[in-house]
Amino acid sequence: MWREKFSRKAPQLNADDFLVVGLGNPGPDYQGHRHNVGQMVLVELAERMHATFKSQKTQCQVAEGRLVPGGPKLVLAKPNSFMNVSGAPVAALTRFYSSEPSRLIVIHDELDIPFDTVRLKLGGGHGGHNGLRSIIQSLGTGDFIRVRVGIGRPPGRQSAADFVLRNFSSTERSALPNLIADAADAVELVAAAGLTAAQLKVHTRPAD
């Protein structure tokens, strides 16, 4: 049904192009939350491409462009839905562009990685992340690339659910621009050199 609906005007992606989804919650009340760091990275990538987000029938805000002339095209997408139901718009996006999950990069916050750290991964489960859970259920597979942006574990007895729906601390905010830039760099590396080469560079990056 979705494929038939979108097939008439759906643009085709080339073999080296990527869909890049930044996870988060919609609306100004959520913009600064740890859970929205994926969308913060997407904004950084859009600025680098001089691209503007526009509404699309897939229920996403989409910006398209290239980071370098002649390089792969990136379709940046922010689902309009809340995090827990990200799967439907992401699946609609892949159908609209007739793209396979292997050409999908999802940028998301990660509790199991220390703050100010970026890790890259292909496939796997959702690890309790409800945005990933929804995407995996809607796509029927977890075989997509993840850019995991470390936010660390909550202090003391604070719940994880409360922690991710809070703004970054003042100390974290001072380092946040570098973290966002590192995650955007990681997406660039994946697009330009492939996942394996990007992992080698990102995962062996010396600490500041």
Folded structure, characterized:
The protein is α/β, with parallel strands linked by helices and 208 residues long. It has one domain (2-203): Peptidyl-tRNA hydrolase (Rossmann fold). It is 37% helix and 19% strand. The protein has helices spanning 2-6, 37-49, 87-96, 130-139, 160-164, 170-193, 195-203, and strands at residues 18-22, 54-56, 60-66, 73-79, 104-110, 118-122, 145-150. It has a seven-stranded mixed sheet, sandwiched between helices. The longest helix is centred in the C-terminal third of the chain and has 24 residues, at 170-193.
Order of helices and strands: HEHEEEHEEHEHHH
C-alpha-based Rg, rounded? 16 Å
Tell me the overall shape: globular
**Helix proportion of residues, in percent?**
25-40%
Strand line-up of the largest beta sheet: 2-3-4-1-5-7-6
Strand content: 15-25%
Number of domains: 1
User: How many β-strands, per DSSP?
Assistant: 7
CATH architecture: 3-Layer(aba) Sandwich
Biggest pleated-sheet summary: 7 strands, mixed
Q: Do you know the CATH topology?
A: Rossmann fold
How would you classify the helix and strand content by structural class? alpha/beta
Average pLDDT rating: 92
Superfamily (CATH H level) name = Peptidyl-tRNA hydrolase
Number of helices: 7
Ends: how far apart? Answer: 50 Å
For the record, the CATH class is Alpha Beta
Q: Which segments are poorly predicted (pLDDT under 50) over 5 or more consecutive residues?
A: 1-8
